[in-house]
Amino acid sequence: MIEIDAQHLADRYMAQWVVPDAVERRRVVERLWAEDATHILQPPADIRETAAALGFDHTTLEAQGHDAIETRVARTHERFVEKRGLTFRARADAVRLHGVVTFGWEAVSAATGDVVGGGLEFRVLDTDGRIKADYMFPGA
């Protein structure tokens, strides 16, 4: 495993969500993520409750590979950055233990600087230091 600064990785990860240019966003995804990486999201409580009411006991949302992850990042950018005026930042609490990095993050109003949300990231790295699996827990 190559040496990775956990906080630097966390900051780079959060920066990908606010890249406005599609070509640059793709480059960022390819630098951060392993080719066969998986982004796994624990859906917000309202989605989990709706799924449970339909008989789904375990709900997760997944994007696998560069194309799917790029789409996920682009849609998040459109919905939260462009339409809602938010930005995202890593908290200064990133920790690495072997091939795992965890950190908290915040969604921030670009207009006021107010924190309006956040969550927890648990990420598994490959031997090149790229993200192999990313577990996102919004609201944590």
Provide structural commentary.
The longest helix has 18 residues, at 65-82. By secondary structure, the protein is α+β, with helices and mostly antiparallel strands. Strands 1, 2, 3, 4, 5, 6 and 7 form a seven-stranded mixed β-sheet that branches. Helix content is 35%, strand content 36%.
Structural class: alpha+beta
User: Count the helices. How many?
Assistant: 4
Beta fraction:
35-45%
- Terminal CA distance reads 28 Å
- The quaternary state of the protein chains shown equals single chain
Tell me, what's the shape? globular
Q: Can you count the beta strands? A: 7
How is the secondary structure organized here?
Blueprint: H1 6-16, H2 22-32, E1 33-41, H3 45-53, E2 61-64, H4 65-82, E3 86-90, E4 95-97, E5 100-109, E6 115-125, E7 131-138
Parallel strand pairs: 1-7
Antiparallel strand pairs: 1-2, 3-5, 4-5, 5-6, 6-7
Keywords summarizing the entry:
4 helices; seven-stranded mixed β-sheet; alpha+beta; 140 residues; globular
A few lines on this structure:
The protein is of the alpha+beta class. Helices cover 35% and strands 36% of the residues.
